[in-house]
Automatic annotation (TrEMBL):
Keywords: Signal. This is Type IX secretion system protein PorQ. It comes from Chitinophaga cymbidii. It comes from the Bacteria. Residues 1-17 form the signal peptide.
Length: 357
């Protein structure tokens, strides 16, 4: 089974080159759905924790310890955009499989509707929506594998689109030495219906690889994640860049550029420090975000993100803040409840706490 899963991951990457930004439909799928993910820099496929939201990035991170967990998250994004997310997990011991389901909703507020001459016709409320089902199993002692299926729907006034996507992931965990590695192919799928008849657009596919290490004598976990592993140069095509530019396949791209800068733009680095038993502090750095969004002379905290979590027996509370530019950041709030700790509902009453498998 594991061999066939690896083969499917390797074959999932598109054969043609892609350019980031404005080339894919359903871009909201790349928004961090939970504060834990926001604090980790927006991308992580190997973090060792009991947060259910990590299974949204790598289905292999869905574990039996997340049984009956219910999570609700909310973010006030930029320009009045708000999005929310709810997820729940359940472990079916009889078939040794853990399941999860989640809903993600993005609302863009009231938008003025005008005709071609600029006459106001009223307002409308564009929105994006994704429903995800996830399943995960263990293979041998140290391997996990998982699959997520997503139904996606988008509505912008009279324009509608829907689609189906899949995430396939694997994870290797060595609890004795504190290592975990993950590999995931995200958003493989297609549109069912497109905004314009006969114009079908690709989904925001990504191939991500990551590794995390818990230090032995310090309550610290370090992570490094590589995103867009199938494409070397992912720099933004900026026609105003001072260096010379060339036109390639209809895209304006930079001429030249440092190899190390191109490599490092794939990396998101994160650290999570545990203070006692109940508090977690997280910090991350996303180099691609800093290089593309920071103002040249006022970079500030662009590309950095921070988070704090309070984890007690019956509750997880998390907050994260992520900077896109010096004075532009957004906040993310989330709460997780292990329902099996709050109520007894037959087998739902099995007492499984926050401890990660």
């Amino acid at each position: 089974m594991l061999r066939y899963l690896l083969i499917s991951l390797l074959l999932s990457a598109p054969a043609q080159a892609q350019v980031l930004g404005g080339k894919n439909v359903f871009a909201f799928l790349d928004l961090p759905p939970a504060p834990q993910i926001t604090a980790l820099g927006g991308v992580n496929v190997s973090q060792q924790t009991s947060d259910l939201s990590l299974a949204l990035l790598n289905p292999a991170l869905l574990r039996p310890s997340m049984h009956t967990h219910l999570q609700v998250n909310y973010a006030g994004y930029f320009a009045g955009v708000k999005y929310s997310h709810v997820a729940a997990g359940y472990h079916a011991a009889s078939i040794q499989t853990t399941f999860a389901t989640s809903l993600q909703y993005v609302g863009y507020g009231d938008v003025t509707h005008t005709d071609a001459a600029g006459n106001i016709m009223g307002t409308f409320r564009p929105a994006d929506f994704a429903w995800q089902m996830t399943a995960s199993r263990r293979y041998l002692e140290k391997w996990h594998y998982g699959l997520s299926l997503k139904y996606i729907r988008s509505r912008y006034q009279e324009y509608h689109s829907s689609g189906l996507a899949a995430d396939v992931g694997i994870a290797f965990q060595d609890t004795a030495h504190g290592w975990q590695a993950g590999l995931v192919a995200r958003n493989m799928g297609t549109q069912f219906t497109s905004y314009s008849n006969g114009v079908q657009e690709p989904l925001p596919f990504d191939l991500q690889i990551g590794i995390s290490k818990r230090l032995t004598h310090i309550p610290l976990q370090l992570s490094a994640t590589v995103h867009h592993a199938y494409q070397f140069d992912i720099r933004y095509a900026d026609p105003d860049y001072e260096e010379g530019t060339v036109i390639e396949n209809g895209d304006t791209i930079r001429a030249g550029g440092g190899t190390m800068d191109k490599v490092f733009r794939h990396f998101v680095l994160a650290a999570q420090f545990e203070i006692g038993k109940y508090v977690e502090l997280t910090a991350a750095y996303n180099h691609l975000r800093r290089r593309e969004l920071a103002l040249p002379d006022q970079q500030g905290m662009s590309g950095f993100s921070f988070g704090a979590g309070v984890i007690v027996n019956k509750l997880q509370l998390r907050f994260a803040r992520s900077w896109f530019q010096r004075a532009t950041a957004f906040n993310h709030l989330g709460i997780s409840l292990p329902l099996n700790q709050w109520m007894g509902l037959g087998r739902l009453g099995d007492r499984i706490g926050w401890k990660q498998d």
